[in-house]
User: Which sequence fits this backbone?
């Protein structure tokens, strides 16, 4: 079993839709969590950190469930520009492990 | 100028050749990482270093070695390249705090023929 797993997608949604991604992790001692965005095989860029209490940044909401060992990312009112691959990252004692990424395609 | 610089950007090499990928950073971060990315597999950690004297194997270190020459430099070597090492390689840095995210270089596209 991979240490960090994501639904690979692709998710194809119309503009304005709400879409949710989940990511599960196997190491209960994992310390911190992030969502990254990657466009067209360019370098990943930090989208948001994920805090225990949940956090929101505009149309994006991240949640952490430590008991069930998963994190989620919700995108509301999706835009064409949201089309990308979304990567969850789990920090295990300084070792940052990526999920395989979930591809999102937002259509007009 | 980029904070995390990888050289070369692209490289084509033959099976059996030794090759070095270089990474330098101006962010003053202690931690540096090498990842490779293959289609459908996300980024997999090869090696990581918390400071000049602390180097650790990641998920897929076989066939690779690293050198942390200074706080700002972390190079990845393939002693004898093989075709399944064809991939996109990323260097990244982070600060030493537990909540610190990664900052990536632009990547090196390596092809082994």
Assistant:
């Amino acid at each position: 079993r991979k240490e960090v797993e994501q639904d690979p997608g692709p998710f194809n949604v119309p503009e304005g839709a709400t879409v949710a991604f989940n990511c599960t992790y196997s190491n209960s001692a994992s310390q911190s969590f992030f969502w990254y965005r990657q466009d067209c095989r360019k370098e990943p860029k930090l989208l948001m950190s994920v805090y225990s209490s949940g956090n929101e940044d505009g149309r994006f909401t991240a949640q952490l469930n430590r008991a069930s060992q998963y994190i989620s990312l919700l995108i509301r009112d999706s835009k064409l520009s949201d089309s990308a691959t979304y990567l969850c990252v789990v920090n295990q004692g300084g070792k940052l492990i990526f999920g395989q990424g979930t591809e999102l395609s937002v259509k007009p | 100028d980029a904070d995390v610089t990888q050289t070369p950007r692209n490289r084509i090499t033959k099976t059996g050749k030794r090759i070095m990928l270089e990474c330098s950073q101006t962010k003053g971060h202690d931690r540096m990482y090498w990842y490779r990315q293959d289609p459908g597999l996300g980024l997999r950690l090869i090696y990581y270093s918390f400071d000049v004297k602390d180097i650790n194997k990641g998920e897929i270190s076989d066939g690779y070695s690293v050198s942390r020459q200074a706080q700002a430099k972390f190079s990845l070597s393939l002693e004898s390249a093989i075709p399944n090492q064809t991939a996109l390689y990323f260097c990244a840095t982070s600060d030493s705090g537990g909540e610190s995210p990664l900052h990536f270089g632009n990547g090196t596209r390596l092809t082994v023929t």
User: Anything to note?
Assistant: The radius of gyration of chain B is 13 Å.
